[in-house]
Amino acid sequence: MTRPLRIAMVAGEASGDLLGANLIAALKERLPNAHFMGIGGPKMLAQGLDSWWPQEKLAVMGLVEVLKHIKELSGIRKGLVKRLLTDPPDVFIGIDAPDFNLGLEKQLKAKGVPTVHYVSPSIWAWRPGRIKGIAKAVSHILCLLPFEPALYDAKGIANTYVGHPLADLIPLHVSQSEARFKLDLPPNAPIFALLPGSRTTELNFLADTFIATAKLIAEKLPGAIFLVPLATRETRLQFETALYHAGAQELAFRLLFGHAQDAMAAADTVLVASGTASLECALMKRPMVITYKVARLSAFLWRRMSISPWVGLPNILAHREVVPELLQEKATPENLAEALLTLQQDKDVRAAMVEEFERQHLLLRQNAAERAAGAVLKTLGIVPPPLAAAALATESASHGG
């Protein structure tokens, strides 16, 4: 190479920031002089990404909610296309955020820029027709879930199953006692972790419900402690304001700045907003209840387009309801409190959940960042070195030897 490789990346939210950071680290081991630019969060910035816009600009959820920001999002995408085509990168990697990234990738691919999309859109859950657009947008797609490659093989779309990076990062066993000691929590108290989401739009719908749920639990379990990890200063202030308006300041809430995994590890039972956090909780082997709320019109449209009976990744991976899902109108404080209290007390159900979570962890533990980096190198026409022995051992264990 006469110049360092230029790798453009766009990640739209916190989970994508983690994927992007791990991928940059793996690529830098092989391409130490590569330059990374685009849009990312703090973890990607720490790995050296030159971020041209704040990641928060892309972190908008819901079909209807996106419409409110469509002008700004369209402006960012146009700006990215112009900048990237003026001085094209060697490869573009769109990390999740399919509604934003696939349109961007389509324009770049049409101009000869190789495109990799990291995280298959959930075409197995809703809008399966999107695969036609994906074929036009991507040179290669990286799949996190084991049943996804067959969908792309059937359409002749180049793909690689890389597993899920969280399964690599989270130990197979996480000590509850150590987590409680780290957070200065009593060893035998009933502890619930409440994860209402990482975005302000999610807290708009869930903060009040989570607080009301905690109040009901506290009536039945007066010694209960509620851990609430919040991703940003904005979401922390938002939750604190909701606590004040609910008159719940006297409850045993512990608001944490980040530390979501510590909160889950310390908890007996978790209430989690649907999304990557539900998989994270499964990998932590903590029994949970999944919930979510969006605007009514968004919920109506999603239901019309959905082909999966579940929204939570632990249930989708199991092909059955392992974890209770209480969504939209079913996500009342009364229903949530009852589900959490039942789960807190039912040892058999808890044990069955944990057993399934252990199976999923082994299935997803594939050394994802290394595999993803190898697929990117192949897209660049660079033959990657063989998988490290540790990666091969992980693969063997995941497939039963």
From TrEMBL:
It comes from the Bacteria. Pathway: Bacterial outer membrane biogenesis; LPS lipid A biosynthesis. The keyword Lipid metabolism applies. InterPro entries: Glyco_trans_19. Keywords: Glycosyltransferase, Lipid A biosynthesis, Lipid biosynthesis, Lipid metabolism, Transferase. One of its GO terms (biological process) is lipid A biosynthetic process. It is an enzyme of class 2 (transferase). Pfam families: LpxB (PF02684). One of its GO terms (cellular component) is membrane. Its EC number is 2.4.1.182. The keyword Metal-binding does not apply. PANTHER family: LIPID-A-DISACCHARIDE SYNTHASE, LIPID-A-DISACCHARIDE SYNTHASE, MITOCHONDRIAL-RELATED. Condensation of UDP-2,3-diacylglucosamine and 2,3-diacylglucosamine-1-phosphate to form lipid A disaccharide, a precursor of lipid A, a phosphorylated glycolipid that anchors the lipopolysaccharide to the outer membrane of the cell. HAMAP family: LpxB. Belongs to the LpxB family. This is Lipid-A-disaccharide synthase.
